Amino acid sequence: MNVKTMAQYAAEGKSPEVVFWVGCAGSFDARAQKVTKAFVNILNKAEIEFAILGNEESCTGDPARRAGNEFVFQMTAIQNVETLNGYNIKNIVTACPHCFNTLKNEYPALGGDYNVVHHTQYINQLFESGKLQVEGGAFKGKKITYHDSCYMGRVNGVYTVPRKLLQSLDIELVEMKRCKTKGLCCGAGGAQMFKEDEPGDKRINIERVEEALGTGAEIVAANCPFCLTMLGDGITAKDKQDAVSVYDISELIVQAIN
Amino acid sequence: MGLEQIAFIVISLLALGLAGRAFLKIKNTIALGKEVALEKNPAERWKNTILVALGQKKMFKRWIPAIFHLFIYVAFLFTSLELIEIFIDGFTGQHRALAPMLGGFYTFIISLIEILSVLALIATVIFLWRRNLLKVPRLVKSEMDGWPTLDANIILILEIFLVCAVFLMNGTDIVLQGLDDPHYVKTGNFAITSWLGPMLFGGLDQSTLVVLERVGWWMHILTVFAFLNYLPISKHLHIFLAFPNVYFSRLSSRGEIENMPAIMNEVKSMMGLIPETEASMDEELPEFGAKDIFDLNWTNIMNAYACTECGRCTDVCPANSTGKKLSPRKIMMDIRDRATEVKANLESNDDQYKLDADKALDSTNYTDGKSLFDYISKEEIHACTTCNACVEACPIMINPLDPILALRRYEILTESAGPSEWLPMFTSVENSGSVWQVPNTREDWITS
Hints:
The complex is a heterodimer of chains A (258) and B (448). Chain A has 258 residues and is of the alpha/beta class. Chain A folds into two domains: 4-126, 3-Layer(aba) Sandwich (Rossmann fold); 134-256, 3-Layer(aba) Sandwich (Rossmann fold), CATH 3.40.50. Chain A contains eleven helices and nine strands. In chain A, strands 1-3-2-4-5 form a five-stranded parallel sheet. A four-stranded parallel sheet of chain A has the order 7-6-8-9, sandwiched between helices. In chain A, helix 8 links the parallel strand 6 (143-146) and strand 7. In chain A, helix 3 crosses helix 11, helix 7 (119-128) crosses helix 8 (160-167) and helix 9 packs across helix 10. The mean pLDDT of chain A is 96. Chain B has 448 residues and is an all-alpha fold. Helix content of chain B is 60%, strand content 0%. Chain B contains 19 helices and no strands. The longest helix of chain B is centred in the middle third of the chain and has 32 residues, at 147-178. The mean pLDDT of chain B is 94. Classes of the chains: A alpha/beta (258), B mainly alpha (448). At the A-B interface, helix 2, helix 3, helix 4, helix 5 and helix 6 of A face helix 10, helix 13, helix 16, helix 17 and helix 18 of B.
């Protein structure tokens, strides 16, 4: 794996094509780290000059802001804007829809204007520019359902690109009843990831996993590290972990380009 | 001037005056909210208004209720045309003043209204059935118990009244025209009453018909007046407020939560990025977020008055559908109820609501010991995942997420309260730049 930090690029007097914003989950969460590595492998395969910020990266502040803690949000966000502007960074790719949304939609008000894409969009661009080709049919004919994350879907209107990537794998895409604009949340957004559910009949991730299992798919594809956790936990709670797997789209793509 | 004419003029002026006063009061209640800087893009705003409000675009995400709603909506628009003639006749003492003037076009318009009225009647009956017998889940949730359900039924029944009045008025008129009384000008054959009129009223003696025609005419206009005066206390206000509500809905990305420049500047000055004088934080500890309606944007309050309680938001809310207390519709209903309560107290001019007894009672000098938190519990606002399903679902672009976040901001920033499980997350974002308390080695994954 070939990974360089922005500081290394700067020391060499060079600038990368794009900064890969890894995010807290992608950096520290064991499950999301696998997605980070899968995406780095894709970038390496396509021979993209990219940098990570490493320890200079901070949480974008999404969960703090959505929990209502504007002070903590501003502290971490302004720090990030300073870092990004300090390196004169223009292009950012991230595998986390929450980081994507905050970088893209909330940092401009703080003085940070960047061209931000989600890793599914970036991979799609690599296919379209011919830098990557899908080879082999590791997933040919497999039944896969796609879970729209709220922050790529409803919030940012990205519905077709992730589906297009999945279909390039020659799979059978089955939709859940609540998909696209009607997609059901995994239950993690709005800082719910960091607290227990409020009292109720059921956890939201269980509701979503029941719907996913109802499609008969062997793989549930997602595009968000928090969705991965919630869906994975839900499938384990339903004792279906041997029959159904949850993957980030990049984890499927990386297996089809090698 | 005849007695009927005088009665009409008096009743009209009274009904319109009272309604006008009530609508003005709602406008002033909405103005209790904070001023908000709206993006200026009239072209985009008019486009939204035409597509979403006038064109009902978002209604058609659920096409069954959308079609029946469309029947009532279009019937309402066209029946309003008929009111022009009712007013001319009422004020001048004429009978069907527009008929000779418009000729065949008059026959066409009234026929269209009759056909639409039949469709509206069908829709109304179906809506009553969906609400009271079929009990569509979103229409019978707990926040609909009592007044909201009665309110919905009253409106539907008023609509049935109105349609009956149209057919009574036109049906008897058609029969009277056949009796060659010169008072009843020839209008041509109306689509429905040309056969329904003789079927129902044929053979009745002329004096009874004359009375029935007047009953129909008066029932029509009195129902309209009743409706107009009922609207301001009803969820049905959406028929007017949907339009400004869509027009003023936010145009910026849903992903952006309203920035708080006061805090941003304070943090920038703490970090030495801007001189301290630029950070405009007051000496006394300011309040952040929303505790009461005065702290909400005026558009949030307009949202609340525009809400017709259809419950599409609550139906798609992941928290609500898994049994949590949060219901986006209830949030909007609570904001409206609280705003109405505050406005009534302000208008009472009662000294007990004064914060400072020496100053006049107004929105800056007001307390009743209550706040939005007496209507909306913390448990409700804690359950939101900010998934935007409610925002997406609303047919008239109400944003229930906005006030939820404003309430969260009050709880966290002003009260320093909130779910204790969030504290470790806040602390570690603040101290180590990560949502989890981990040593700050963001590159470990490369070698792990």
